[in-house]
Amino acid sequence: xxxxxxxxxxxxxxxxxxxxxxxxxxxxxxxxxxxxxxxxxxxxxxxxxxxxxxxxxxxxxxxxxxxxxxxxxxxxxxxxxxxxxxxxxxxxxxxxxxxxxxxxxxxxxxxxxxxxxxxxxxxxxxxxxxxxxxxxxxxxxxxxxxxxxxxxxxxxxxxxxxxxxxxxxxxxxxxxxxxxxxxxxxxxxxxxxxxxxxxxxxxxxxxxxxxxxx
Length: 214
Ligand code: BG6
Ligand code: MG
What we know:
Blueprint: E1 4-7, H1 16-31, H2 37-41, H3 48-56, H4 65-83, H5 95-104, E2 108-112, H6 118-124, E3 133-135, H7 148-157, E4 164-168, H8 171-179, E5 183-187, E6 198-200, H9 208-212
Parallel strand pairs: 1-2, 1-4, 2-3, 4-5, 5-6
Helix pairs in contact: 1-4
The protein binds 6-O-phosphono-beta-D-glucopyranose and magnesium ion.
């Protein structure tokens, strides 16, 4: 029986996954590094610095630690410019309806995101007070596929991992959920992940009854 649902943020609750892509594409273009949407898929759920390492696989240039930090900061600046335009209109179709439906049914809801921009995004979209717990990139040492971010969310809600369901759009996030001993609903880009327990193209397709069916 599911007692809590932990939602990934970027690409599940808010359409910020596109802004991440645009920020990295701008940085890669400026640095003359080949980058495209296919490579971008590997960055879903992965921390900022680990994302940069994936982008740097396409260059022979050796960047030092300070230079890497500067590149990651630059991308975050471009990303934050885009985040400034965020509003409740950027909440993905079906997300708020599902979150509110679960709350009304007595199910706890949390955010489990690798992003250090989570508090800012929740504020801009009017969701800062919506969730029972927020676990994000500012509070963890290891990002997805490590289960840390989801285990922290479960602990904050006092719900055992086995009674938690994760909603994810990243392959790394589906793996993190499995590693945490949780059930996983894969949406969007993670749709084809074989480890998912349920899948949907969009949260519009998912009802509270579907969650109770686990
Ligand atoms: C995840 C995104 O939610 O957050 C990743 O899916 C991103 O693409 C990661 O790299 C870290 O985000 P931020 O906002 O801390 O740079
Ligand atoms: Mg995501």
